[in-house]
Design a protein that fits this description.
2 strands; 474 residues; binds tryptophan; two-stranded antiparallel ribbon
Length: 474
């Protein structure tokens, strides 16, 4: 059997995990849902969702991974051998498989758009109809969409084939810094344009009337997807960590990077949109219809358009590799397959499964499953059902079955401050003062986290889930 690998450095792990989190969710989806839900007000509730649900659940996943050094199924099984809890892990592995199949299709569109940008097609758009027409023709073309999806799966397979250090960590460490550099360049460009201030105002203005219960649910669902939670990506990535790492600090870094990229993406997009005199409420078409038009109105549009689509492409690749890694880790740990075999076999099967999703915008548009296109069906099943169910089960398992006591014992390796220092003394910088650390403390980061994981996170996710699937009407 192959020896289980470890990350070669702390920063390598953080970049890989942040790479998983930062993806289409941040750059494509976050800006448009923020745009539709009132800009600044939505950002505020999104931050709340990240704090009360995202951060605690991510810490849970990473703890489970490092403790058991296993894939999601193996992790539950290691703690409660033979119990039905392992199905919580199995839902995760299945969700990883399903999400990757259609996520790769959308990632493929960004590849196609890099091509369109370089060849100057994008900078020739005259109006929104032309931009829309070009997008529709592209996604309806079986040849193009399947080819691009194939290329994404081939790149993903290649990276994961090379393992943790030489594959995932290496590529995340190259691509993530580039994502930041490109974002910053685009933000400077956007802000330097005349009339861009309106975009900044839009993004950070508070329209409290738009703070509807629906916006809360959207924020919660998005926080989950954006942080790659609920299916065990973080369990799997955490399983390659060694005992010395400070899990709380790492989690904080990953969550902050993900949130920063979402906000920066908004700052890269809206100022430029306003500067060329367009409206920001384009919905899902924001980056594929509206932005190409924005680029066509800019000087050197070819350059900006190419940079922008390379940015999303890089962000998407660091996410697709995390999804394939979850599926692979399961077969490697549990069924003792070799990494190379699993990755090639499942890379190919997921490519095949993605084909109907790719075709569901064109040739197979009329094929419906319970009234949804194949793409929407797989998306709804995995993102609206499997992810929240996975998230609820993970927090209940750690909070009530394995127990927060055992989890905190695991965090103590590498993170003494989290578990044993009074929260107020810690925040005040007085943890080393003799009169502040002389006794056992009840109010610590760990106790706060325990309450979130036992009560607040599962209840909040449950409510969002029931609204999402229409059981609770708001
Ligand atoms: N978080 C990624 C994004 O924002 C997508 C993603 C990667 C994901 N792995 C995941 C979502 C696992 C849910 C679960 O685009």
């Amino acid at each position: 059997m192959e020896k289980r690998e470890n990350w070669s450095s702390k920063i390598g792990f953080i970049l890989a995990a942040a790479g998983s989190a930062v993806g289409l969710g941040n750059i494509w989806k976050f800006p448009y849902i923020a745009g539709e839900n009132g800009g600044g007000a939505f950002i505020l509730i999104y931050l709340v969702a990240i704090l009360i649900v995202g951060l605690p659940v991510m810490l849970c996943e990473i703890i489970l991974g490092r403790k058991t050094q296993k894939n999601p199924v193996g992790a539950f099984n290691a703690i409660r051998p033979g119990s039905p809890w392992m199905f919580a892990g199995a839902i995760g592995v299945l969700a990883g498989f399903l999400i990757l199949s259609y996520y790769s299709v959308v990632a493929g569109w960004t590849l196609g758009y890099i091509f369109k940008a370089i060849t100057g097609q994008i900078s020739s758009f005259q109006n929104i109809e032309m931009a829309k027409q070009s997008f529709d023709t592209f996604i309806q073309s079986a040849k193009w969409s399947v080819l691009c999806h194939f290329i994404i799966m081939a790149i993903t397979t290649y990276i994961v084939y090379n393992g943790i250090k030489k594959g995932i960590e290496r590529w995340s460490s190259i691509l993530m810094p580039l994502v930041f550099v490109i974002l910053i360049i685009l933000i400077f460009k956007g802000l330097s344009m005349k009339g861009s201030k309106a975009g900044v105002n839009f993004l950070f203005s508070f329209d409290f009337k738009k703070l509807t219960p629906g916006a809360f649910v959207t924020a919660m669902g998005h926080a989950f997807f954006s942080l790659s939670l609920g299916l065990g990506v973080m369990i799997t990535y955490g399983s390659y960590l060694s005992k010395g790492e400070n899990l709380f600090k790492s989690t904080l870094a990953i969550v902050s990077l993900d949130t920063a990229v979402a906000l920066l993406a908004g700052l890269a997009i809206f100022p430029a949109v306003f500067a060329v005199g367009l409206e920001p409420d384009a919905g899902p078409g924001l980056i594929f219809h509206l932005l190409p038009l924005v680029f066509s109105k800019m000087a050197f549009g070819i350059v900006w358009a190419t940079l922008f689509f390379i940015l999303i492409f890089f962000a998407a690749i660091t996410s697709t590799i995390s999804l394939l890694e979850v599926v692979s880790a399961y077969f490697i740990d549990e069924l003792k397959w070799s990494r190379k075999t699993v990755v090639i076999v499942f890379g190919f099967i997921i490519f095949l499964l993605g084909i109907p999703s790719a075709l569901s915008f064109g040739k197979w548009e009329s094929v419906k499953l319970i009234g949804l296109s194949f793409f929407d069906f797989v998306d709804t099943l995995s993102a609206n059902y499997f992810l929240p169910i996975g998230g609820i089960l993970i927090s209940l398992f750690v909070g009530w079955i394995w127990g927060t006591k055992n989890a905190v014992d695991e965090i103590r390796h590498g993170s003494h401050n989290f578990a044993d220092v009074h929260l107020i003394s810690l925040l005040a910088g007085l943890k080393d003062d003799p009169s502040h650390n002389s006794e056992v403390h009840v109010v610590t980061l760990a106790s706060l986290w325990g309450i979130f994981i036992r009560f607040i996170a599962p209840i909040a996710i449950m409510i969002a889930f029931l609204v999402l699937i229409g059981v609770i009407k708001i």
